[in-house]
Input
Amino acid sequence: DAKTTQPPSMDCAEGRAANLPCNHSTISGNEYVYWYRQIHSQGPQYIIHGLKNNETNEMASLIITEDRKSSTLILPHATLRDTAVYYCIVRPHLESYNQGGKLIFGQGTELSVKP
Amino acid sequence: KAGVTQTPRYLIKTRGQQVTLSCSPISGHRSVSWYQQTPGQGLQFLFEYFSETQRNKGNFPGRFSGRQFSNSRSEMNVSTLELGDSALYLCASSLGGTSGGETQYFGPGTRLLVL
Output
């Protein structure tokens, strides 16, 4: 089961900041928070990830609360092309190669950017 | 650097047939994961291959199988197709280490329709 909770949908005006929340209250100390987005019927696109500190890249910023139980993805100036489903995923640090890696996707947040 | 490629992009099969899908990872990536996406179940992990060995497996029947070649390219096979196998099949590649901070990058997917 997914270990994250996200609102099913959000609207944002074009040019404004889009703030997408994610709750991960059961996160463990060695688990990372990942964000992906999926534009209709395309493959998911990696956005950003973090462990404890806030992170920023050319696409977005990730704010993780001090207790790490929730995070917010910020798209600073949303455009119509940012309309997509956004997935917040918690992924553990792997202790051995035998564990492998898999992503457990929830239902995500459907973000609609409106003109 | 070229991204993850998947072939074919679209496929139509009939019930009872089998199908083979192909995935070429990003150059230098040694891990390939496969996911199935359907409207009802969302994105679900199928299996992961690393160094030609299945390293992790999701909860799918044995009709779903895969393999990885020495050049890290991967194929997945679905035998005795059922209507419910109609889905978008996604492949993701990563370097293959054990860190939870390692990112998976997705291909565009293969859209399979079973009639």
User: Anything to note?
Assistant: Chain A has a mean pLDDT of 90. Chain A touches chain B through 31 residues (CB under 8 Å). The first strand of chain A starts at residue 9 and ends at 13. Chain A is about 0% helix and 45% strand.
